[in-house]
């Protein structure tokens, strides 16, 4: 597709087509589908059965579409190494996982939010907030490392901002992980081996890894405990490349003559040279989790969770360039085909990260299902140690040390506190209410050092800091108006504050002004249970997504003044509506669902070029209006066609367009970045007997753009955002009562596809597991 805009008439026709498909699908004869989410067939809105002994972020009443998956389905159908792999085949979701153990760019994308909008989704594990709302973008990924696949009991996903129990960051989705808690003594161990054959540009190599995991748990009277230890040691493929535009070369006979550069085209279809591969990460991640629970009385339970995550990362690189003697070239002036190009010491350089993060969660919850229930929960996420090291010396000399910079984020983190109540005066009426507080603290200091590998920071180069706080009151009221009708009406009142913002360089410290905002977000849902197990639902909700610390306190210092900053940055405001028709058959074993969704967002927060000022600057700005309309079709079935065959499938069409953007008018009428027009998933799993299970998964994502003006017309390249169609297979076998083994292949067809960085190519995993 070479056009960079969508004609208005075509967009109208697409919208009409989506509406027509939604109506036609809702009238389609019923088929059967697997009951992955536990649903109350008599209820007008879905109710998820959550064990009251486990902390969860979910409200009791769910006023929106919900999907989920259980541990057993994950084990049978997904080659899961990281926690985010559990979301791989759920409708309309994509995690931008570039390699195994991707800890800093694995952003969750949803229906109307791309992989650049990390702050438009919420991820929880046992009630602990894992979403990194210190910023919005690829480097603010949820802290997936605080959960391992072996711990997961189930995952639930709520689509859209329709529950008053969540802040405006729920505009895309809320993901809730529930991890295991034993009822008797149990022990588990698993060993996994990984291998990827990666071939791209001048790189052709096999990258391997291994994962070791063990768990113990028991319940003894009123006390229960769970311990999980996990280590991942992985070599990922290169994710970045050194490039030079051919047009930037200067005709000259000077510079070191080199060979080995690979000709290609960038996303704007301009000719460039690919000179080397960088960002080849070797990561060793250690995870420890202990959960304790104690029944203080028959009506009251206290639980505590401690999570520890450590990551040691060392990156490698490969220069494709060779001098006349065949030696690799990393920097300096080079000559390619009679043109001179300059390579700085940082064009090809290594990095090193040392991270040690802690998480705490405390929960006190009533256990009786009476007229009134309550819960108090608190959590803390702490960057106990967080340093990144970068050299300023040239390779290969930098491999032994030399000058560089250290980025230290120690002291960064967030904490949450919540008080929740549920009042049930009768079986037809449920009221949920609560108070929530979230505090975010960012501290970043960059220092010069004479030894980038082992030295201490010696001189301040720059620093950045800021705090935000969100306090909320919410109320949500659910009424069963009649046996077939149910309504949920709610609202959320929020008070947001930002302060302590400061920016500094080697000799100047400048402070930002404080900010505060108030917002009210109403929510409403109505459902009707018709005959023949049809359910019709309509939901509407407003979401106000406040600016994050990094968005608000952006900028740089010039002549003792902060520049490239917008002190009046507005919150992002969205109105979202959803219409759903759902058919349940075979006592909940089969579900067919069609959901038409629409979102209108004003003041969307994006980094873009501001053309209203001279010279133009690039910073975080508000985009006037973005409109998103789409249709999601889901079909799932157990024992379809013949016994043991299950189907899980979904197709999503999305039309997301920028309607208003005063600071960058060329983007008006263009597609919102990183949201594909089509998404589709299909999982076929077959269990011929109790010991053997097999699965085939297919994932598809259509055309998308990375730039606001859709100028990136060449998608299959570094910096590009491409379509893809990949297949995954898995075979799981129960060797004995306590032993099982599995082998799987992801990207079986070895598709080379991109989301700015290259995704994983064909990779094989093999595991053996012991369960007692």
UniProtKB/TrEMBL annotation:
Upper taxonomic lineage: Bacteria, Pseudomonadati, Pseudomonadota, Betaproteobacteria, Burkholderiales
Coarse class of the protein's main subcellular location: membrane
Family: Belongs to the TonB-dependent receptor family.
GO biological process: siderophore transmembrane transport
Protein name as catalogued: TonB-dependent receptor
Keyword check for Ubl conjugation: no
Domain TonB-dependent receptor-like beta-barrel: 300-748
InterPro entries xref list: Beta-barrel_TonB, Beta-barrel_TonB_sf, Plug_dom, Plug_dom_sf, TonB-dep_rcpt-like
Source taxon at top rank: Bacteria
GO CC terms of this entry: cell outer membrane
PANTHER family: COLICIN I RECEPTOR-RELATED (PTHR30069:SF53), TONB-DEPENDENT OUTER MEMBRANE RECEPTOR (PTHR30069)
Location of the protein in the cell: Cell outer membrane
Origin species: Undibacterium oligocarboniphilum
Keywords assigned: Cell outer membrane, Ion transport, Membrane, Receptor, Signal, TonB box, Transmembrane, Transmembrane beta strand, Transport
Keyword match Metal-binding: no
TonB-dependent receptor plug domain mapped to chain residues: 61-174
Signal peptide feature range: 1-32
Gene Ontology molecular function, alphabetical: siderophore uptake transmembrane transporter activity
Membrane-related topology note: Multi-pass membrane protein
SUPFAM superfamilies attached to this UniProt entry: Porins
Pfam families (UniProt xref): Plug (PF07715), TonB_dep_Rec_b-barrel (PF00593)
């Amino acid at each position: 597709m070479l056009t960079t805009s969508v004609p208005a008439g075509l967009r109208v026709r697409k919208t009409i087509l989506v509406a027509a498909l939604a109506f036609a699908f809702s009238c389609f004869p019923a088929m059967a589908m697997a009951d992955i989410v536990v649903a109350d067939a008599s209820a007008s809105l879905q109710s998820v059965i959550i064990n009251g002994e486990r902390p969860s972020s979910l409200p009791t009443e769910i006023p929106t579409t919900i999907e989920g998956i259980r541990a057993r389905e994950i084990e049978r159908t997904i080659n899961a190494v990281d926690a985010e792999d559990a979301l791989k085949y759920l409708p309309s979701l994509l995690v931008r996982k570039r390699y195994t153990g991707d800890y800093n760019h694995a952003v969750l994308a949803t229906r109307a939010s791309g992989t650049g909008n990390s702050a438009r989704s919420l991820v929880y594990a046992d009630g602990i907030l894992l979403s990194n709302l210190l910023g919005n973008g690829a480097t603010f990924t949820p802290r997936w490392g605080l959960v391992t696949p072996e711990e997961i009991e189930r995952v639930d996903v709520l689509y859209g901002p329709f529950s008053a129990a969540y802040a405006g960051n729920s505009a895309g989705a809320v993901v809730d992980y529930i991890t295991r808690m034993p009822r008797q003594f149990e022990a588990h161990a698993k060993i996994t081996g990984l291998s990827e054959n990666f071939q791209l540009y001048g790189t052709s190599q096999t990258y391997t890894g291994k994962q070791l995991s063990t768990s113990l748990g028991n319940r003894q009277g009123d006390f229960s405990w769970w311990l999980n230890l996990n280590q991942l040691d992985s070599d990922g493929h290169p994710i970045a490349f050194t490039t030079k535009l051919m047009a930037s070369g200067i005709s000259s006979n000077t510079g070191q003559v080199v060979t080995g550069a690979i000709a290609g085209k960038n996303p704007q279809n301009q000719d460039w040279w690919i000179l080397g591969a960088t960002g080849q990460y070797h990561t060793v991640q250690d995870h420890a989790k202990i959960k304790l629970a104690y029944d203080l009385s028959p009506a009251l339970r206290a639980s505590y969770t401690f999570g520890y995550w450590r990551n040691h990362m060392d990156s490698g690189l490969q220069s494709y360039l060779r001098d006349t003697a065949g030696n690799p070239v990393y920097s300096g002036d080079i000559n390619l085909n009679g043109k001179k190009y300059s390579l700085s010491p940082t064009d090809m350089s290594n990095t090193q990260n040392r991270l040690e993060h802690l998480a705490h969660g405390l929960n006190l919850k009533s256990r009786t299902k009476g007229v009134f229930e309550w819960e108090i929960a608190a959590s803390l996420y702490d960057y106990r140690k967080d340093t990144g090291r970068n050299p300023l010396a040239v390779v290969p000399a930098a491999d032994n040390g030399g000058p560089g910079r250290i980025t230290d984020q120690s002291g960064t983190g967030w904490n949450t506190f919540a008080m929740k109540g549920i009042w049930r005066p009768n079986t037809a009426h449920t009221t949920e209410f609560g108070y929530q507080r979230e505090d975010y603290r960012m501290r970043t200091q960059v220092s010069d050092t004479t030894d980038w590998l082992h030295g201490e920071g010696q001189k301040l180069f720059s620093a950045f800091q800021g705090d935000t706080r969100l306090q909320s009151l919410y109320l949500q009221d659910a009424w069963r108006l009649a046996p077939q009708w149910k309504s949920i009406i709610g609202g959320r009142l929020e008070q947001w504050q930002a302060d302590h913002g400061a920016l500094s360089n080697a000799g100047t410290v400048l402070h930002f002004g404080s900010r505060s905002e108030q917002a009210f977000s109403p929510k409403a849902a109505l459902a009707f249970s018709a005959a023949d197990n049809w359910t019709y639902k309509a939901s509407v909700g407003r979401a106000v997504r406040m600016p994050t610390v990094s968005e608000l306190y952006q900028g740089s210092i010039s002549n003792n003044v902060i520049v490239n900053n917008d002190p009046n940055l507005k919150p992002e405001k969205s109105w979202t509506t959803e219409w759903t028709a759902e058919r349940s058959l075979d006592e909940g074993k089969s579900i067919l669902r069609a959901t038409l969704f629409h979102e209108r967002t004003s003041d969307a927060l994006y980094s873009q070029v501001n053309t209203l000022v001279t010279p133009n600057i690039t910073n975080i700005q508000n985009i006037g209006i973005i409109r998103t309309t789409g249709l999601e079709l889901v079909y799932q079935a157990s024992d379809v066609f013949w016994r043991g065959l299950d189907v899980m499938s979904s197709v999503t069409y999305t039309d997301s367009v920028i309607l208003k953007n005063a600071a960058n008018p060329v983007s008006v009428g263009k597609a919102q970045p990183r949201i594909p027009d089509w998404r589709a998933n299909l999982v076929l799993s077959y269990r011929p007997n109790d010991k053997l299970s097999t699965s085939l998964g297919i994932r598809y994502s259509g055309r998308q753009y990375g730039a606001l003006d859709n100028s990136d017309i060449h998608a299959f390249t570094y910096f590009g955002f491409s379509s893809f169609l990949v297949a995954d297979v898995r075979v799981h076998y129960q060797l004995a009562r306590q032993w099982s083994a599995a082998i799987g292949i992801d990207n079986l067809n070895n598709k080379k596809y991109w989301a700015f960085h290259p995704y994983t190519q064909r990779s094989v995993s093999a595991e053996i597991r012991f369960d007692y």
